[in-house]
Amino acid sequence: MITIRSSEDLVSHLNTIPRSSSIGIVMTMGALHDGHGALIRQCASENDVTLVTMFVNPLQFAPHEDFRSYPRTPEVDSQLCREWGASILFAPEAHDVYPSSFDTHVICGVGNADRNEHSEGAYRPTFFQGVATVVAKTLALTRADRCYFGLKDAQQCAVVKRITEDLWLRCEVVLVDTQRESDGLAMSSRNTYLTESERSEASVLWKALCQGKKLWNGGMRDVGKLRDAVKQDITRHETLKLMYVSVCDRWTMQELHGHLPHDRRAVVLCVAAMLGRARLIDNIVLEQ
């Protein structure tokens, strides 16, 4: 595995790779865990070259969020990338990704708050613009054939699929199942914020989602009642500060309302909550 620090050096290296070789990319912010491992291993099994990026993207964070305290473990991450099969680790500095002349941002309608008042776009107005911008830049730079994202971030997956299609980025988006701890908690770099007592409560979100899926499978199609049932399962735990419960279209992120027909497809149930310092998100697909 080779480690590259600048975009110029990355382009030079990529130009030495035969055009017949397939390039897969996994974009990360570091602080790697087994969820990232699943992405990197699958990428390595399906491509000739596996490129992993490690960049804590400042555009994804609002001023009051945890950009400065976000966990950074570069030495450990580098070793894990090597073990999981990465060919290239690209770890640029912010001034390389966003030089002083930088003045272009990508805005995707899928992430807009006016489409879904119960979403990451509503609660983190800068988030999806930051994601869309860095993903578009990275795919344009690397010309990757495939990019790999975890389904834990369902809304992010929808944004990435939309921008790759709309901007003709010619990259296949491969979505990989959420990796979970033994009690169901979705793996996340921010789980390191949890205290021991908070960690014992954290699986509540997944259990509430599973209960919502059970209600859906039992025939419940009243979105308001479904949303309320999931809310009640979460809010009975006082340590969890619920931010939203969303029942929405899986690919447009349009919030759904009223009574849905039984043949309605592409429905996802998403939740977000604060538990101490940790902001936890999770989801479950109700219909493919």
TrEMBL record:
Entry keyword Signal: no
Catalytic reaction(s) noted: (R)-pantoate + beta-alanine + ATP = (R)-pantothenate + AMP + diphosphate + H(+)
UniProt xrefs under InterPro entries: Pantoate_ligase, Pantoate_ligase_C, Rossmann-like_a/b/a_fold
EC id: 6.3.2.1
GO biological process, one term: pantothenate biosynthetic process
UniProt keyword list: ATP-binding, Ligase, Nucleotide-binding, Pantothenate biosynthesis
Pathway membership, UniProt: Cofactor biosynthesis; (R)-pantothenate biosynthesis; (R)-pantothenate from (R)-pantoate and beta-alanine: step 1/1
Keyword Nucleotide-binding carried by entry: yes
Pfam families tied to this protein: Pantoate_ligase
Molecular function per GO: ATP binding; pantoate-beta-alanine ligase activity
Entry similarity comment: Belongs to the pantothenate synthetase family.
Identification of the protein by name: Pantoate--beta-alanine ligase
